[in-house]
Amino acid sequence: MKLREVWREAARNFGSGASHGAVSLVAFLALAVCLGGVATRSMVDVSTEATAFRDAGASVFRLDAPGDIDGTDCDALASVEGIDAAGAARVGDSLRFALLPDLPTPYFDVTPGLARLLGFEDAAGVHAGLVIDADLVGALGLDRTPDDAYLAAGQTPTSIAATYEHPDDGRDATLSGAALGVAADDGDPFDACWVRFWPRSENPLELIGTAMIGSGGTGEATQWNPTLGRVFDPEASFTALPLTALALTAAAVAAALAYVAVRLRRLELASARHVGVARTSLVGIALAEVTIWWLPTFVLALTVLAFAAAGQNPDPPLAALLAGARVVVAASAAWIATTGLATAAIRETHLVRYFQQR
Q: Which domain holds residue 138?
């Protein structure tokens, strides 16, 4: 049978409903979207959890050693693999703003590394002004930054260059409601070294101790926000996802559905063999029938998974989409292969038995 005739027969069977194409389309789409969606959203959930852990400051540790921290050495820790940012801070004299004269505002000199860790390194003019806790902005009557504010008993306005976020989510209150100034590299020691370990590595916390001026400093590092646990390992969480099991399950279910679809038509297929349709032609027609509904369904399933991968995903959605696509591909391969094999197994000699069992 010529290829044109194969496709013509397949289209006729699909149009008449003889191939049960509409039912197969709905069944495959439900299978692909459900199991593929589980795989995709599992990846998104891990990304969301990892981002929440990092954004909450749970991966930041601080070593307190008053007057014994080398700011340059502390900043240099950011170049170590597995350390995302590092910087030092030292306590300065408290400030009193004119609008809050009875409320002393803690002040800290910080290194550029700590500015990067807190997320305000790109603010214009941070070296020429203060950086304050975002919660202080309203109390100081500021609508935006940069702007100016007056200190108590001061005649010259003080520049407020930027703000940093310090939500009340379980973080250590050291920098809460504080004002920071990016210090010049004058060689003076600092009081604490802050380090953000991300992504997680095997680097021990003792690495922070290398920023101490003293030769044998072994102070214990304090976690900035311990409410989300001590450690979160995104790589281990991704590895633990049952992505392979989901793909195998999808393949098994697809194979079972495809086998049932062929079995429901075995009398029809055996009759075709009886009137002289070659086995290869029969298999070709069956695969063409599947292709007619499978191709648009495959595209539709991937489109749905693309939206699922992008929704509330803090990371690029490609990895999550590929996890779901893997499930869809496994189901597709199983359905197509089973259809071909099951159709090829139909025998003309079993026509009477198929008729009796219909």
A: 59-231
pTM for this prediction: 0.80
For the segment 310-324, what is each residue's pLDDT rounded down to a tens digit? 999 999 999 999 999
> Which of 173, 177, 176, 185 has the alpha carbon at shortest distance from 88?
185
From 166, 197, 231, the end of a domain falls on 231
Task: Give the angle subtended at the CA of 260 by the CAs of 255 and 261, to the nearest 5°.
Answer: 95
The edge-to-edge listing of strands for the beta sheet with 60-69 is: 147-149, 158-164, 130-133, 179-182, 105-110, 83-95, 190-197, 60-69, 222-223
Residues in the chain where the model's pLDDT stays below 50? 124-125, 274, 350-352, 354-356
What pLDDT is recorded for position 53? 92
If asked whether residues 282 and 153 sit together in one domain, one would say no
Boundary of a domain, candidates 204, 231, 258:
231
Asked whether residue 73 falls in the same domain as residue 165, the answer is: yes
The answer for residues whose C-beta is within 8 angstroms of residue 134's C-beta and 6 or more apart is 163, 164, 165, 166
Together in a domain, 36 and 66: no
Structure-block tokens of residue 87: 């910087």
- Residue 296, number of CB atoms within 10 A of its CB: 12
By CB neighbour count within 10 A (0-12 exposed, 13-18 middle, 19+ buried), where does 156 fall? exposed
Amino acid 272: pLDDT: 58
Q: 3-state class of 194 per DSSP? A: strand
Could you tell me the two tokens for 227? 């409410």
Token pair recorded at residue 96: 């009193």
Cα atoms found within 13 Å of the Cα of residue 171, Cβ hemisphere only? 21
* Same domain (yes/no): 143, 249: no
Instruction: Give the CB-side neighbour count of residue 123, counting CA atoms within 13 A.
Output: 26
Q: Which residue in 55, 43, 74 sits closest to 225, CA to CA?
A: 55
Same domain for 80 and 172, yes or no, is yes
Using the 8-state DSSP alphabet, how is residue 118 labeled? H
pLDDT tens sequence across 42-72: 999 999 999 999 989 999 999 998 989 999 9
* 68, 179: one domain: yes
Q: How many domains does the chain have?
A: 2
